[in-house]
Design a protein that fits this description.
This protein is α+β, with helices and mostly antiparallel strands. The protein is built from twelve helices and 26 strands. Helix 1 crosses helix 2 (87-99) and helix 8 crosses helix 9 (263-269).
Amino acid sequence: MEEGIGKIVRKFIEESDGVLKLRPAWIAHDFLEGGHRLGLKEEDYDCGERGEIMERWFCSETHAVNRIDIPTEGFSELEIPGYHITIPEALEVCKSEILGEEYAKTHDGFGRLIKIYDFKTRLFMHIHQKQEDLNSQGKVSKDEAYYYLDAPLGDHPESFFGVHKYIVDQNLQYDIFLPMLENWNGREENMLKYFRAFQNVPGEGFFLDSGLLHAPGSALTMELQEPSDVGAIYQANVNGYPINKSMLTKDVAPEDIEKWGSGELAALHQIDWEASADPLFFEKRHLFPKPCEETRQGEICEEWIYYGTSKFSGKRLILQPGQKFFSRENGVHNMFIWKGQALVNGTPMIAGRCDLVSCDDELLIVSDKAREGYMIENNGDTDVMIFKYFGKDINPDTPEIGHMR
């Protein structure tokens, strides 16, 4: 069977000239209400007892962890008529053909996860654990970065990041937050007053290292992160939506609970309090488009929108009608078209052309094709906006993050 899948995938790569169409990966949640801005028909968002669709993942090799487990939820599929071959299955049989021979020697996959999340309200206050807190469980931490899309911003277009500095300076964090976690009574505003809020500005974003407290706002957000779904949630209620307390300790190791005497205290000790209280939080972690001068072609210049780390990176390309751009990259990557329509190596990409089972807005470019190069042409009558996403170690020398000199 494995040999058969490999033959099918290799044929698909060859016939597609390394530019592979994908099927969309939709993710449902049952803990909040979705914003219904993902382009689906209204009736398509409802997933019954699983909740409703609130996220779309792109070129994903990551399993979505939900209360009701669907074994393939989160995995993207190759658009091969008559077959359902997921990205993990394709990588298992054609790793070197997709990742590139050299890259595949040291990397098992893309090493990143891209998603657009779409929540009606802001998210709960939470962290993603640092690697040292996950090692004993065989789990992986996740740094992440946001880009706010130009779409309706929702009811709460501000994100809370970190705590006020005095709390950590005076070692008050346990006195303040431990009773809230023990009571778990849903007094949301009593908690949020201890955090700082920043506006969600379309075209900009933030970089968040593991261990940092954050409650993302309601803007339609495109997130690039490490391929993991771990976290600890510290908020019992978000705008009337109750959060099950099991979400506080789902990724807290049993030995840490024993060490600190309770799950609540163990979860609080996983927070990076010093970084969360940094008064220069915005200056060090704010993301805004920076020109990619090394690929400039006349007046056309790509922009870095995810940068400052070798763990993942991303670009934005804007083309006016009739413009062409020859793209050559360091390695395997995938693409999503947000506005307009284009031809990518002759393959049509059309923004907004997507339903539950198929799409024309997402592509995967295998390593050999990325290095060889391919043409992107705006063949429509409006501007095109395309995003490119790269995994671990593909672009090790991106710009520095933020405003610090």
